[in-house]
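User: Can you predict the 3D structure for this chain?
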Amino acid sequence: MPAYLLGLDVGTTGAKALLCDAHGHVLATTTAEYPLAAPQPLWSEQNPADWWHGACTALRTVVARAGVAPAEIAGLGLTGQMHGSVFLDEHDEVIRPALLWNDQRTAAECAEITARVGADRLIDIAGNPALTGFQAPKILWLRNHEPEQYARVARVLLPKDYIRRKLTGVSATDAADAAGTLLLDLRRRDWSDDLLAALDIPRAWLPQVFEGPDVTGGLLPEVADALGLPAGLPVIAGGGDNAAAAIGTGIVRPGIVSSSIGTSGVIFAHAETIALDPPGRLHTFCHSVPGRYHLMAVTLAAGGSFRWFRDTVRDPAGRMVSYDDLTAMAAEVPPGAEGLIFLPYLSGERTPHLDPLARGAFIGLTARHTLAHMARAVMEGVVFSLRDGLEIMRGLGLAPTQIRATGGGGKSRLWRQMQADIYAAEVATLAAEEGPAYGAALLAGIGAGVFHSVDDAVSRCVSVTATTAPDERSIARYDAIYGIYRDMYAALRDGMHRLAMASVSA
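Assistant: Here is the predicted structure, written as C-alpha cells:
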C-alpha cells in the first residue's frame, strides 16, 4: 500500500499543510491564515488558539484535496516559526498571547542575559549572542514585567510544539528549533543546566528534546476523530522553519549551501561539526539532520528592499512599476550599476552588523543614473549583503561547492546570475521548492520508516533541474565593488545612528 506523508508549518502568517507521496511528489497544499497583533510599538504577538484553528483547518483541507485514504498516511512532521514563547499554566491553558520571533521588546533582558552568563560563554554554549528574537529573553521579560502571569507558568513551548502538545498530549521539541531558544547546549543537543541555572529558569518547564526524524508521539483519538486522521498517527519531531526547509532543498551535506531571497534573506550552510563565529555575527544551530549543525546568516530586508523600491517608485505617467519591468530595466544596466551602490538596511541589519539602527542608502548617485540603475543597485546590494554572511562562513572553513537559490531569488534569471557572479560560485535551482512544510513531510517519512535516512529521503525526492555558472568578467567587477560596499557601513555608521535617534526624539 502506498505511503503518504503530511507536513505542517505553523508559520507567522498562516498554517500550511502539505501532503506528498513516497517519491516526494506533492499532491496538495493549503494555507489557513491567521492574524498578527502589535499591541504596542516593537511588540509582535499571536493567539496560540489561532494557530490551532489554522492547523486543524489546513490538515483537514489538504487531506480532502489530495483525495487519499487517511489510513494510507504514514506520518505527520511539524515545523514552524522559530523563537516564539507560548506560556502555559498547570492545566495547559495559555496564560497570555505568544511573543514572536520578530518581537523587539526584550533589549534590556538581552543585556541581563549577557551580564549573567558572559558574552563569550553564551556563544560557546548556545552558539549565539543574546538577541531580542530568541525565547530566553522573552521568559525573563515575563518575569520582569508581568510577575503575576509569570507565577502561573508551568510550561514554555515553541509555536509548533504547542501544536504538537494539542495533537499528541506530549511535551516535546527538536534540537534544531530548541537551538533557537538560547537555552540549548549545542554540543550535548539538550538543555544547558548552566544557562538554566544562570537565568533561574526551571528545567521542568521545558519539553524533551528529540532529533528531527524521531517519533515524539501519536495522534490522540479525539483529535484524530476531529481531523479525520488515524488515531495514533506518528507525529515526528521535525524542525524549525529554516532547518526543515533545508531538508526539502537538500542542504544536508558539506559544500551545499542555500541562498534564499524572500522578504528577508538567508544563507544556510550544513556543518558536520559545530563551527562558532566568536563575534556572534552568524547563527549556529543544530540541524534537523541528526547529530549535525548548520550556520545561518540573515539579511533582514532582502526581497523586502526590492518590494520597498517597487512600492515607492513610479513611471513617468505616475503608475507603479511591476517587478518584471524593474528586473527587465535592471538587466539592461551593466554589473555595478555604473558606480551606484545600495545598502539594504531598511529594517536595521542582522548579519554581519547586529545593528537595529543601521539604515539604508543609495551611494554614488549622479545625474546619469536612472530608475534602471537604481533597480539594479537594489538587487546587487541585497546579494552583497548575503555575501557578507557567505564570506564569514568561508572564513570558518566552510567551502561551498554549490549554492541553491530559493525564494524569489531562485525564480528570476537575473537574480540567479547576479548571485552566481557575486558569490563566484555555481548557482542551482530545484525541481520543486515547497518550503518548510515539505521538509517536515520528508522528516515524517524517515520517522515512519518510508525512508531509511535523511540522505535517502533527499536522494529520492530532491533534484536539481538547472545551474547558472558565474561569468569571470563579472566576478572581477563585483569583487572590486564589493570591497567598496563593505567599507560603506563603517563609514556611515555614526551618521546612521544619529539620524535614527533624531527621528525617535522628533
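Residues 120 and 278 are 7 Å apart (CA to CA). The first helix runs from residue 48 to 66.
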